[in-house]
Model the fold of this input.
Amino acid sequence: MNNVSMLLENFPHAVAGGFIIAAACSILGVFVILKRVVFIGVALSQVAAAGVAVSFVMAIHPYIGAALLTLVTVILLSYPFESHRISRDAILGIIFVVASALSILIVSKSGFGLHEVQALLYGDLIFTTPHDLIVIISVLIPVVLYLLMFLRPTVYTFIDREAAKVLKVKTSLWEFLFFVALGLTVSVSSRTAGALLVFCYLVVASSAGLMLSRRLGLVLIISTIAAFIATFTGMYLAVGYDLPTNHTIAASTCLLFAIACLPTLISWLKTTVPTPLSSRT
Amino acid sequence: MKKQPIIKCQNVTLAYGSQTVLKNVQLDIPPGVFLPFVGPNGAGKTTLLRALLGLVRPKSGQIITPFAQKAPGYVPQYKVIDPIYPVSVKHIVKMGLYPELQWWRRPSQSHKQRIDEALEKYSLTQHADKTFDCLSGGMKQKVMLARAFASGAEVFIMDEPTSELDDAAQHEVLEHLFDLTKKHKKTVLLAHHGIDNLVKWSQDICIVEHGQAAVVPTSEIYPRGSWLKKIKAKRAHAYE
Done:
């Protein structure tokens, strides 16, 4: 109980920021998984880190650098790329490698130590400042509201793009807006919560929702609740046992995902494990 | 008196890059017909129907349709819907109402009634809350039909709606399609592989072959289609 009150009193910005990041990433993550573009989450979070690194060199605000570079990448990715030689996944892989290498190379010449470089590029949720929280609120809450408000055309675009087009859904617009929303969310969240945790919210928390329900609305709610529980539990444990916050939250999310898999695992075991001959009638 | 065409293709050439698929297609499709588009694989049946839907832009020529005012009922193969999506049958059928509901309107009582009617027509009422991945291939194809029917479209365009189905399901789906023309006076255009099971359904057939497309009476089709002659010859050989 002491740890809870200590957490709320000493790190209110981290708790609030963590919850907002958890909600935004887990809701967007459901669509990232359904659209089978999971790798875009990793690639974009590395691009955001590269944007932060570029910001140091150009002496601009890290959030602006991260958001600009991520948005440029999203716009490039939304261009219909047709090639028989390399897939979109391969392009994402190339972006990931270039962004990862670039961010470290740029900051390595800045005079910081490796630990500082990592903290600068990838952030730590527990050190969320009031300024970070303002940025998180002003970017992520409109993103979540946008997605919930335009859920219908976004879902129609994703489930059957051509039929949606025939039904006069502006599929290219909704798809583009979704990726812009994803780019903004990943760039802002990565700066505060780090690439690993953002990817964890995007994929693991959302997967927990998908494991527990086959109704889209419920999936979104369950994913958000799972991300909230993991965030609070992770922060509580990190503060109580002096553990790295981002990694403890990520571990808690994975544990929740494992729990969410239990019903499916049990029903799978029930149907696949053969009944012993002695108990058959 | 001959009916005014509802869809017109005037000297339409369709191509993917430098590869021409269909050249100078002239088609007049009157309302209320059941018109299968038949031809060998790769002949351009799907491309032509996609061009009518506005999904493929003609390289040259003009396609005149009433789809700007009223969206057509598009029925793709059920496999276009990724089974990973946690959406119910009802949710997919409701998609057909998008031109009226847009992103902001809640479905009214009459909209809900139309969804229920579409579900009932295709015997899907008891499966309405099931997710799409729980259904058989035939049922999934009927969901695609119910979505188009719920939209209240006048023209239905279908891309091989029976290609992945067994004989019984194929027959059931074709019966439903023909019923759209016969009972509801809708125009039904479909890309189709087989021919035997279409002879009894349609008066005319659009043959798509060798970069051309032409509507011919079903009764004349056997002597004209070289592709069909080959099939007939193969079958005769198999029975010997």
Remarks:
- DSSP finds 13 helices and no strands in chain A.
